[in-house]
Amino acid sequence: MYYIGIDLGGTNIAVGIVTKEGEIVKKTSVPARAERPFEEIFADMAACIARLLNETGIPEGEIASIGIGTPGCIDTEKGMLVFAGNFKYGKMVNYRDLMAKHYPNIPVYIGNDANVAALGEVRAGSAKGMRHAIMITLGTGVGGGIIINGEIYEGQASAAGELGHIVLVQHGEQCTCGRKGCWEAYASVTGLVRQTKAAMQANPDSIMNNTPMDQVSGRTAFDAAKKGDKAALAVVDRYEEYIAEGLADMVNIFRPEVLIIGGGICKEGEYLLAPVRKYVGEKAFGAGLLPEQKIVVASLGNDAGLIGAALLHA
Amino acid sequence: MYYIGIDLGGTNIAVGIVTKEGEIVKKTSVPARAERPFEEIFADMAACIARLLNETGIPEGEIASIGIGTPGCIDTEKGMLVFAGNFKYGKMVNYRDLMAKHYPNIPVYIGNDANVAALGEVRAGSAKGMRHAIMITLGTGVGGGIIINGEIYEGQASAAGELGHIVLVQHGEQCTCGRKGCWEAYASVTGLVRQTKAAMQANPDSIMNNTPMDQVSGRTAFDAAKKGDKAALAVVDRYEEYIAEGLADMVNIFRPEVLIIGGGICKEGEYLLAPVRKYVGEKAFGAGLLPEQKIVVASLGNDAGLIGAALLHA
Lengths: 314, 314
Prior knowledge:
Chain A has helices at 38-56, 95-100, 113-124, 184-187, 189-202, 220-226, 230-254, 270-283, 303-310, and strands at 2-8, 12-18, 24-31, 63-70, 73-75, 80-83, 91-94, 108-112, 133-138, 142-148, 151-152, 258-262, 294-297.
């Protein structure tokens, strides 16, 4: 049997046929054009599935399920999007019914995008075979996915795993969620850019200032640090400690076998991981007495969501 | 069938016969005298069981299992204490083998004391019937128990649930675990006493100063606050916010159906809970959009551990 995975993003929709082992047989994508009615978006998704089946010669009867990873707040039991900011009709949309119009004989499952990415990494990526795993994705915010006994942990209303929204500094930086001092406000790329800009202003001699202020990105400080720039080294060190502080919380709470870091920052590889591991080792409970956890970067990149969605109930 | 539950504390050992519904048929206790060899401690526990069986007339064949709740780091699969600070021979002690010498025909299970207390509250206490629950116990430290799908979540090496050791203030107050700024350092009774003493020194006119400095307890600020003392009201308000800050983290991470607060502070009841609920409501993610969780005080008191231990595999 094969599994259809769909990664429904705000910009692109990726659709793929996946094996039980998490290998992508074939994939395709179309622009989401999220301002459209959902019926049109689902017609596009169904057309992608039809094309993939046609091109691979896999009969519809060989498809065990269709899994959809989506941003927003969902009701997995009903297969429904409850609320999402980035779709025009983003309230109370039943994905399962919409897909059933095109493929009435195939079960449809949905999952939160951060959760299915975590599942993808556990089934086929850098955490393959692990039972208990925590994935964080560092981007505009800090996304989270909790894997317990090899399955997504969703909590009440499928709303668990908002791992970016744990406090790091009580009454600290304003977070987008309304609270102050969240981990996300410090460990997201948005936070890193803010920290980089502040260091540039405070250190006019830093080579970070070769980058115009409006072009500062998550790379600016890392690139300058690798050239030995002291102000940049301080930014990177502090940023790594911010990441580690929240990861140590995850260790103390979940004692997982593996912590997975996703997002563009993964490209820094061991340059990022080595100091993060050191800080986590210092901050986690019972250091030296308890088995350690692996800390790895995600290996599936943009495919994690597609693969995880495909294998939601595989 | 009936279940034996044992709450093995550093001071006392409580032993009871429990029904599947979590009702205590009969219980007894003996001093732990934890400085003794474990063989003697287990002989005492076995004698307690024999006496309870004799007094209730329940035959040994009616006992489905013996569950032991213990402090320290454990290996539940092997039924072994790996490490505990408060027992003389607190390293690598196989509880299962020690009990099997007395009751070879009854399966023996072990659990961490904070975890079995949480299980007790979910099976028979203030969170009865809930699937996803988080319990914190406010005392010398902040203990934690995680219940997922009605069962204890243990993580790697049974070491999950160190909920007091998540950061509240990065680089803040020194915590006993070696890290700085842990929730425990602020929300434990130890933290409250420290905050109370600081407020007494800063506010010589406060009626809190009627209590001698060396007799300050977790009640001092609460008692004075109820009499309208402004400095005490400020201490209590800040302490409630500390509690709520970590509980909001638990909501965002687990989105549980219920948060249970245990420890002596429970006696404050709604006087404590109402402000804590308000703060959690303000700080939790997606307030107003997502189903809320209950916040309750533990109802089983010292029996929670005994009942939870009894029902570890019931």
